[in-house]
C-alpha cells in the first residue's frame, strides 16, 4: 500500500491537494496517491491534465464540483460517497484544488469520516495564493515590507449585506497596516467592491494590489493596481473567478515587465 494512504477496516481514504493547476506543482505524494486510487472524487478546480496523466484508466472518477455536473454536489452526499466507497474496499482519493486544508472544507470531510470510523490521510498541495504571488516574481514576506501573511476568504460577502459579513475587514486592514502583513484574499472577486471600501478604512488607497486568475495555468491573467481601484481594476481587466487578490507592500517591487503596462498603476 502507498505510504501516503492510510487504511481503515476495508479500503482507504486520502485527501489530496492537487495544487493550483499546473500538474508539475503536484507533490510526489499526491502523484503516488492518485496513481493508487480506484475511486477519485474530484473538485472543480482540479486540472483535467492531472487526471489524464496520473489516474488509472480503470479508476472511477466522480466530478463533484459545480462545473462537473449541473450544480455543486452537496457536501453530505460527497461524504456519504466517500464512506461507502471506503467500506466497499476502494482506495479513495478525494482530490481538491490547492491545499485541502485551505478553504477546501477538507477539515469538515476529515471530521465526518472520522465520526464514521474512517481515518483519512491528508496530502498537502500548493495553495493558490502562494502560486499566484510567486508567479508574479514577488515574495509573500519580505524583511522590509511584510512580516507575515493572512489567508482570508472574501466569499462570505457574496449575496449578503455588509452587516452579515463575518469578516471584520476594517480590523484586518488596521492590523495589516500596523503589523505589516500581506493579505491574500480567496474567493474575493464577486465582493471586491465591498472588500475595497472596507479595507480603505485601515489601509492607504495607494497600497499595491494584484489580482491573479488561473494562477500557474497557461491561461493565467493578472492585473496590478492600487487598493482604491481594486474593483475598477478587476472590471477593466475582465478578471473573474477563480482568482486571488493580493494586497500589500510586498508588491511594490513588482517589475513593470512582469505585468501588462496598462494594468500596472504602481511603480517601483
Ligand atoms: N483549497 C484551495 C482553495 C479553494 S477555495 C487552495 O488551497 O488553493 C477556491 C478559491 O481558490 C477560488 O475562488 C480562488 O480564489 C482560489 N483559487 C483556486 N485556484 C486558483 C488559481 N489557479 N488561480 C487563482 N485563484 C485560485
UniProtKB/TrEMBL annotation:
Q: Which UniProt keywords apply?
A: Methyltransferase, Porphyrin biosynthesis, S-adenosyl-L-methionine, Transferase
InterPro entries in the record = 4pyrrol_Mease, 4pyrrol_Methylase_sf, 4pyrrole_Mease_sub1, 4pyrrole_Mease_sub2, CobA/CysG_C, Siro_Cobalamin_biosynth, Uropor_MeTrfase_CS
- Its Enzyme Commission number? 2.1.1.107
Q: Name one GO molecular function term.
A: uroporphyrin-III C-methyltransferase activity
Q: Enumerate the spans annotated as Tetrapyrrole methylase domain.
A: 14-230
- Please give the NCBIfam families that the UniProt record associates with this protein: cobA_cysG_Cterm (TIGR01469), PRK06136.1 (NF004790)
Q: Which family does it belong to?
A: Belongs to the precorrin methyltransferase family.
Give, as one word, the top-level EC class.
transferase
Question: Among the record's GO biological process terms, what is one?
Answer: siroheme biosynthetic process
Protein name from the UniProt record: uroporphyrinogen-III C-methyltransferase
Metabolic or biological pathway: Porphyrin-containing compound metabolism; siroheme biosynthesis; precorrin-2 from uroporphyrinogen III: step 1/1
